[in-house]
């Protein structure tokens, strides 16, 4: 089940985040660290109604932020459309619940939300070292658009898009 996050969920989200950061750093991926994302980022997402959580057996096991905020770093990439898009940000799955379809469920939820919002286009990005996220987006039929850089991050980020049918 996926539902909108509430402020009470923040402690569990931060526990999941810490586990994800430890895993990322184990293979030298510093996409996320002590500076980003922070509790205040998730709290702002919750306040705006843009953060969703995946719940299994009354336990939050994943999260995803979905909004229309496009990083200015996306400018200059060869996106296939200039239409209104939903953007997937800050998505994570508890490391203890990997390979259970939660990531695919979260991406599918973003696509369903786009359909319900009458939006037919999604964009996202991930660190070039984040092979798990790249594999997920490819499995969900997202198309690689190109790479860009975020200030302060050593490695490039890969950008993906998906045009929805119907």
Considering the chains and any ligands shown, give keywords for the structure.
about 170 residues, alpha+beta, 7-stranded mixed sheet, about 30% strand
From the spread of the alpha carbons, the general shape counts as: globular
Detail the poorly predicted runs.
Answer: none
Q: What kind of sheet is the major sheet?
A: 7 strands, mixed
Run of helices and strands: EHHEEEHEHEE
How many DSSP H or I helices?
A: 4
Helix share bin: 25-40%
According to DSSP, the number of beta strands is: 7
Q: Give the termini distance in whole angstroms.
A: 24 Å
Content of β-strand: 25-35%
By secondary-structure content and strand pairing, the structural class works out as alpha+beta
Mean pLDDT comes to 95
What Rg do the Cα atoms give? 15 Å
Strand order, main sheet: write it out. Answer: 1-2-3-4-5-7-6
Mind sketching the topology for me?
Layout: E1 2-4, H1 10-26, H2 39-48, E2 51-56, E3 59-67, E4 86-93, H3 102-116, E5 121-127, H4 131-139, E6 143-148, E7 157-163
Parallel strand pairs: 4-5
Antiparallel strand pairs: 1-2, 2-3, 3-4, 5-7, 6-7
Describe this structure in words.
With 166 residues, the protein is an alpha+beta fold. Helix content is 31%, strand content 28%. It contains four helices and seven strands, in the order βααβββαβαββ. It has helices at 10-26, 39-48, 102-116, 131-139; strands at residues 2-4, 51-56, 59-67, 86-93, 121-127, 143-148, 157-163. The chain has a seven-stranded mixed sheet with strand order 1-2-3-4-5-7-6. The longest helix has 17 residues, at 10-26. The radius of gyration is 15 Å and the shape is globular. The two termini are 24 Å apart.
